[in-house]
């Protein structure tokens, strides 16, 4: 069936090939680049594949080669509110957000999709590495590039209007295909890190927006072992940059175990103290109605992270996860994405973690 498709074109190789495949499949494709900053120079530069003026030009050239109409849509205000400010607010609250996940949820499959549907498009096409068929979201075949984790926040209604043409292909093959198609972005480096932090220095970015807020760094006994300039600069599992003046009594490295914005305290301790086997997730998004009681599945707790066997127990606007083996360094604010094999069952935002007493 021929559809009117809006292809989100970031300026990178993946979205360019995705748009080309949609057009080759016979769909009526229009390319659009999302301008996400009122001052693009403040975002990453140097062929990073997201958010820059250079990327806008690369996207336009790719659309010309494919032979599709191309537009730039200004979503900077929405992006700043729903992604950048959310990123700052989450760190201020002692959590560790994933801005790529939030961008998919709030921008690509909310703001962009809503506007596309209002203009009469049937679907939004992106260059994500994931497979989608009959409403079922699955991992992409390229395990190293799989992006089903950051798409798991999308609802069934949103996925009904989504296309992911790259999910059955490896990144190496996508680059080779881009070369064959004459797309100049074939060898363009992938984007990394947070696109809206121009120099990659998250600590400085947050300090500029939240200011300095000195407080104690304490160990598990409550003893003060150092001082920080802002608890927001730390994340659970962090080892480097703790600025502790003296080593632990046993000489072993310390890791961040907890961040308390209420007391402005960072708690550190040994690596094994990072282990958790019980997780509570908030605001679950189910891609299929969950069972009424506990059920076995697998859970991924960070992008490209390890996957754990668990028992999930839905409970209204929460879901409790009991891991069969402990996970280490689980950060509040990240997503817990549930899988049955390679199929995505749903997701929730990690709100609480704990260790079940032996």
From TrEMBL:
<feature type="binding site">
    <location>
        <position position="34"/>
    </location>
    <ligand>
        <name>ATP</name>
    </ligand>
</feature>
<feature type="domain" description="tRNA-specific 2-thiouridylase MnmA-like central">
    <location>
        <begin position="204"/>
        <end position="269"/>
    </location>
</feature>
<protein>
    <recommendedName>
        <fullName>tRNA-specific 2-thiouridylase MnmA</fullName>
        <ecNumber>2.8.1.13</ecNumber>
    </recommendedName>
</protein>
<dbReference type="Pfam" id="PF20258">
    <property type="entry name" value="tRNA_Me_trans_C"/>
</dbReference>
<dbReference type="GO" id="GO:0000049">
    <property type="term" value="F:tRNA binding"/>
</dbReference>
<dbReference type="Pfam" id="PF20259">
    <property type="entry name" value="tRNA_Me_trans_M"/>
</dbReference>
<dbReference type="GO" id="GO:0032259">
    <property type="term" value="P:methylation"/>
</dbReference>
<feature type="site" description="Interaction with tRNA">
    <location>
        <position position="334"/>
    </location>
</feature>
<feature type="binding site">
    <location>
        <begin position="8"/>
        <end position="15"/>
    </location>
    <ligand>
        <name>ATP</name>
    </ligand>
</feature>
<feature type="region of interest" description="Interaction with tRNA">
    <location>
        <begin position="145"/>
        <end position="147"/>
    </location>
</feature>
<dbReference type="GO" id="GO:0103016">
    <property type="term" value="F:tRNA-uridine 2-sulfurtransferase activity"/>
</dbReference>
<keyword id="KW-1015">Disulfide bond</keyword>
<feature type="binding site">
    <location>
        <position position="127"/>
    </location>
    <ligand>
        <name>ATP</name>
    </ligand>
</feature>
<keyword id="KW-0820">tRNA-binding</keyword>
<dbReference type="GO" id="GO:0002143">
    <property type="term" value="P:tRNA wobble position uridine thiolation"/>
</dbReference>
<dbReference type="GO" id="GO:0005524">
    <property type="term" value="F:ATP binding"/>
</dbReference>
<dbReference type="InterPro" id="IPR023382">
    <property type="entry name" value="MnmA-like_central_sf"/>
</dbReference>
<dbReference type="InterPro" id="IPR046884">
    <property type="entry name" value="MnmA-like_central"/>
</dbReference>
<keyword id="KW-0808">Transferase</keyword>
<dbReference type="GO" id="GO:0008168">
    <property type="term" value="F:methyltransferase activity"/>
</dbReference>
<dbReference type="Pfam" id="PF03054">
    <property type="entry name" value="tRNA_Me_trans"/>
</dbReference>
<feature type="active site" description="Cysteine persulfide intermediate">
    <location>
        <position position="195"/>
    </location>
</feature>
<keyword id="KW-0489">Methyltransferase</keyword>
<keyword id="KW-0819">tRNA processing</keyword>
<feature type="domain" description="tRNA-specific 2-thiouridylase MnmA-like C-terminal">
    <location>
        <begin position="277"/>
        <end position="350"/>
    </location>
</feature>
<dbReference type="InterPro" id="IPR004506">
    <property type="entry name" value="MnmA-like"/>
</dbReference>
<keyword id="KW-0963">Cytoplasm</keyword>
<keyword id="KW-0547">Nucleotide-binding</keyword>
<dbReference type="InterPro" id="IPR014729">
    <property type="entry name" value="Rossmann-like_a/b/a_fold"/>
</dbReference>
<dbReference type="InterPro" id="IPR046885">
    <property type="entry name" value="MnmA-like_C"/>
</dbReference>
<feature type="site" description="Interaction with tRNA">
    <location>
        <position position="128"/>
    </location>
</feature>
<feature type="active site" description="Nucleophile">
    <location>
        <position position="103"/>
    </location>
</feature>
<comment type="similarity">
    <text>Belongs to the MnmA/TRMU family.</text>
</comment>
<keyword id="KW-0067">ATP-binding</keyword>
<dbReference type="GO" id="GO:0005737">
    <property type="term" value="C:cytoplasm"/>
</dbReference>
<comment type="function">
    <text>Catalyzes the 2-thiolation of uridine at the wobble position (U34) of tRNA, leading to the formation of s(2)U34.</text>
</comment>
<keyword id="KW-0694">RNA-binding</keyword>
């Amino acid at each position: 069936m021929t559809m009117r498709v809006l292809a989100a074109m970031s300026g990178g190789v993946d979205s360019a090939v995705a748009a080309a495949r949609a057009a080759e499949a016979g769909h009526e494709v229009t390319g659009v680049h999302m301008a996400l900053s009122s001052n693009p120079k403040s975002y990453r530069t140097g062929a990073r594949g997201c958010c820059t003026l250079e990327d806008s030009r690369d996207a336009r050239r790719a659309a010309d080669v494919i032979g599709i109409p191309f537009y730039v849509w200004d979503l900077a205000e929405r992006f700043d509110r729903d992604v950048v400010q959310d990123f700052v607010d989450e760190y201020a609250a002692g959590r560790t957000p994933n801005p790529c996940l939030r961008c998919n949820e709030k921008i690509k499959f909310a703001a962009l999709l809503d506007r596309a549907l209002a203009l009469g498009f049937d679907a939004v096409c992106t260059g994500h590495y994931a497979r989608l068929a009959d409403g079922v979201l699955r991992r992409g075949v390229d395990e190293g590039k799989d992006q089903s984790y950051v798409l798991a926040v999308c609802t069934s209604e949103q996925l009904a209007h989504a296309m992911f043409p790259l999910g059955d292909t490896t990144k190496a093959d996508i680059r080779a295909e881009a070369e064959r198609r004459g797309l100049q972005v074939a060898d363009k480096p992938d984007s990394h890190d947070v696109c809206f932090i121009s120099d990659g220095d998250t600590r400085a970015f947050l300090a500029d927006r939240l200011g300095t807020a000195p407080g104690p760094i304490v160990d598990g006994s409550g003893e003060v072992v150092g001082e920080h300039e802002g608890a927001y600069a730390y994340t659970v599992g962090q080892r480097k940059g703790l600025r502790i003046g003296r080593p632990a009594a046993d000489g072993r490295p310390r890791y961040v175990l907890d961040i308390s914005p209420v007391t402005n305290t960072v708690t550190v301790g040994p690596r094994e103290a990072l282990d958790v086997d019980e997780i509570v997730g908030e605001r679950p998004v189910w891609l299929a109605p969950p069972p009424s009681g506990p059920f076995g599945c697998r859970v991924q707790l960070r992008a490209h992270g390890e996957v754990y066997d668990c028992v999930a127990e839905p409970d209204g606007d929460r879901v409790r996860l009991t891991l069969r083996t402990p996970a280490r360094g689980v950060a509040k604010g990240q997503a817990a994405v549930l899988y049955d094999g390679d199929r995505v069952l749903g997701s929730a935002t990690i709100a609480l973690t704990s260790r079940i007493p032996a």
